[in-house]
Amino acid sequence: MSQSRKTPLPLVVLISGSGSNLQAIIDACAAGRINAEIKAVISNRAEAYGLERARRAGIPARVVEHTRYSDRQAFDQALAEQIDRYAPGLVVLAGFMRILTDEFVNHYRGRMLNIHPSLLPNFQGLKTHQRALDAGCTEHGVSVHFVTPELDGGPVVCRAVVKIQPGDDAETLAQRVLEQEHRIYPEAIGWFAAGRLQLVGDQAILDGEPVAQMDKTLT
């Protein structure tokens, strides 16, 4: 059963690049569409523009550079130590381009979301837009999912469909998908912040019902 929160849900957002999804989340929090507060933004790249977005919004911006660590486990341990300083109720991956160790993922099980630019389970991994075009798909899109050890394989929370148009290339398709990312990611985070969304076992549960048994593809 969902339980509404009175105090804002503390978030930590992980990024690697420009942070456009981060900006959508910042804007949604500021507008009151999400009952949450971003406690920190952490990047594995010091040059990531998303860090500047965080600073402009008055959000602590931190860097944990993966190149300074001997292996993925050492990096993930350092990253988790930084995250846990802020005691987040939810960790949000927003263009965070690192494969995470099972130990890290399990530490945040049920309280870590990711957004992936495809209609999962189709096209897990990279270069999803070109792969959808090469496969002759008529539809593409984006999915929000809980993070589990399987890469892009966690339970899907919601998806948004983008029609592939004649003449589309990977760049034009990516731009339209990104517009939908900015729409559905704040919505999914809002569900979690409101106590409506949770991970139970291996199922995403929204308003007491398994998402897999509902039509949660947003158009």
Automatic annotation (TrEMBL):
Q: Give GO terms: molecular function aspect only.
A: phosphoribosylglycinamide formyltransferase activity
Which pathway, per its entry?
Purine metabolism; IMP biosynthesis via de novo pathway; N(2)-formyl-N(1)-(5-phospho-D-ribosyl)glycinamide from N(1)-(5-phospho-D-ribosyl)glycinamide (10-formyl THF route): step 1/1
Q: Name one Pfam family in it.
A: Formyl_trans_N
Query: Which key words tag this protein in UniProt?
Result: Purine biosynthesis, Transferase
Q: What does UniProt list as catalytic?
A: H116
- Give the E.C. number(s): 2.1.2.2
Q: Where is this site: Raises pKa of active site His?
A: D152
Gene Ontology cellular component list: cytosol
Report the residue ranges that make up the Formyl transferase N-terminal domain in this protein.
11-189
Q: Which GO terms describe its biological process?
A: 'de novo' IMP biosynthetic process
Instruction: Quickly give the catalysed reaction.
Output: N(1)-(5-phospho-beta-D-ribosyl)glycinamide + (6R)-10-formyltetrahydrofolate = N(2)-formyl-N(1)-(5-phospho-beta-D-ribosyl)glycinamide + (6S)-5,6,7,8-tetrahydrofolate + H(+)
Q: Where does N(1)-(5-phospho-beta-D-ribosyl)glycinamide bind?
A: G19, S20, N21
Where is (6R)-10-formyltetrahydrofolate annotated to bind?
A: R72, M97, R98, I99, L100, N114
| Family classification | Belongs to the GART family.
Q: What does this protein do?
A: Catalyzes the transfer of a formyl group from 10-formyltetrahydrofolate to 5-phospho-ribosyl-glycinamide (GAR), producing 5-phospho-ribosyl-N-formylglycinamide (FGAR) and tetrahydrofolate.
The protein's matches in PANTHER family, at most eight in alphabetical order, are given as: PHOSPHORIBOSYLGLYCINAMIDE FORMYLTRANSFERASE
Name of the molecule in the record: Phosphoribosylglycinamide formyltransferase
Q: Which organism is it from?
A: Candidatus Tenderia electrophaga
